Amino acid sequence: MPPGTGSAPLYLLVFLIFLPSATATAQEATSPLEAPKIVVTDIPFNFELSRPSVSPTGFSIQISHDGHSVYSKSGLTSALTDVRLPAAGTYDVVVIDGVSRWEFTIRAIPGWFTVLPPIIAIVMALIFRQVILALFAGVWLGAFIVNDYNPVRGFFYVIDYYAVDSLAGDSGADHVAISIFTLMLGGMVGVFSRIGGTGGIVDQISRIATTARRGQLATWLMGVCIFFDDYTNTLIVGNTMRPITDRLKISREKLAYIVDSTAAPVAVIAIITSWVGFEISLIKDAFDAAGIDRNPFTTFVASIQYSFYPILTLVFGLLIASSTRDFGPMLRAEKRARTKRQVLSEKAMPLSSLDADVLLTSDAPRRWYNAVIPIAVVVLGAFIGLVVTGRNSLVESGVETFSLMDTIRESNSFDALLWSSLVGCVVAIGLGLVQRLASLADIMTAWGAGVKSMVPAFVILILAWSIGTVCTDLHTADYLVTQVSGLLNPRLLPMIIFLIAAAVSFSTGTSWGTMTILTPIAIPLVVKVSALHGLADGSAEAVLLSGIAAIMAGSVFGDHCSPISDTTIMSSMASGSDHIDHVRTQLPYALVVAAVAIVLGYLPVGFNVPSIVALIASGGALFAIVRFLGKTESSYTENGAPSD
Predict the structure, then answer these.
(1) Residues of the chain above pLDDT 70, percent
(2) Domain that holds residue 120
(3) Do 41 and 77 lie in a common domain?
(4) Is 35 domain-assigned?
(5) Residue 56 shares a structural domain with residue 95
(6) DSSP labels for 565-620?
(7) pTM of structure
(8) Are the CB atoms for 35 and 47 separated by under 8 Å?
(9) What is the torsion angle, in degrees rounded to the nearest 10, for the CA atoms of residue 206, residue 211, residue 214 and residue 216?
(10) How far is CA 391 from the centre of its chain?
(11) pLDDT tens for each residue of 402-453
């Protein structure tokens, strides 16, 4: 037998598996027109000119299925928009330009296929409590659909395309920055924990936070104070307060909830945050595309009064923390923590184990400033980084006069976070060495342990970003938006936009991605529908502002509820909570706030109810819900179990 003959069948199998994909790519590369490889039935898509040197005139295109023509058109390529395919299957496309002829294929899939990957991932995560496995299954299912239902090619596509694309694709630089920031901050926490900083903070705050109520209020207040970036907020508050809430027998689920409910909600509505430039740029682009002449920044500021879900989430978190009243799964978690002294459930698998790796081995003097100084460096450094990057951007573009808000709007938040986390690590290491609290080897071991504690969450983040790319490839957002686009009553638009944003964010696990998708659609839609129905200027203005706020608020709400959301994952990680336990206990609270925001917020303002009236009514409703539905700590500690 000639050398290598025995492995020929394997080579042939691999060749057959990958041949269809390679052939299709080669065929499509020859055509001057580009279309998505996968489209959704009855969802419009566009052809684009891929080679500008080719004349856009004289084109004819014909699309057929099983030998029957379903679409044909001639003329300019700019006219080849809003193409719809009627049924699932493979379509043959023929493009003719003079004497040149090109042929390629397009696949159409049923609309409900587009939501299967995120649904499978979410359901499996909730049932089996294995987040990594659930996310992998969701990505694999998406890759299976993308690769013409080939399970083997789809399996490898998870790693060689989606996982790699999450760190090297269009959003790869941002994802890498978030990953490095997370790992660096974990390393910094490991260092100042090893040199006694965390123990010192615990001692100082424990003098004030002597009860579960005070501990929760301290966590909520810290979350509100670190308002300029949700990632910084989540990682610092969760890691700092975890030893304190553990001592006070506050469940990890409650800590994760408070951390999660003060991170994005405060970042999305505060004026000086890493979100504001992104939000304003989206609004500006939508205004420009729709030919609307108004200031995007002042519009954003005016819309904050209609950000019912973020505002009410902060109010609800304060009510829960100050009253120590809980209901639903959170009540059971708090009862377990307070009466059985178990901050984690018996089946919990926390995403971070920093306390086991570092905190319990520290024998250094407990000095609070060894933690506060590095944290302050990160917080202040991130803000300075926003100003510096924004100023540099403005100067490079030729702008000579600008305000602080201009610099924040043009800043690069990812660079700012990377710089601040690096300096924070250096400062923490320097404090340990200068005070001779540990050897350089011990400090670097602690830094490595802090980084290692973030690795499980890092893997989950990659898979979460991957399933977001799957949703993009399958046009999940386009399908969801189309399903409800017929509900165009201008009075109902704020509520409809909120629900659409929530659905898209929940399915894709990204609030920023949802804002990017919906803002250029929703703003022109609101303007046109309001004009079509002849709304008065005051009513139209209220609908526009509340519609803009609904995009941001719905994105945050869906992000809160989704187990595949990066910020939800990071909240679980920083708090040392089991991720599914965090999602399961937070979901009822988020749904309650969202229901109140819809019924007493977005629905009434569409009918000219002032935003302040809606906010007061909503706040009163939340107070009543907590007061009459929640049970106090004394209801389950009155039999002698300790409550502090």
Answers:
(1) 86
(2) 114-168
(3) yes
(4) yes
(5) yes
(6) -HHHHHHHHHHT-BHHHHHHHHHHHHHHHHHHHIIIIIHHHTTT--HHHHHHHHHH
(7) 0.72
(8) yes
(9) 100
(10) 27
(11) 877 778 777 887 888 889 889 999 999 999 999 999 899 989 988 988 888 7
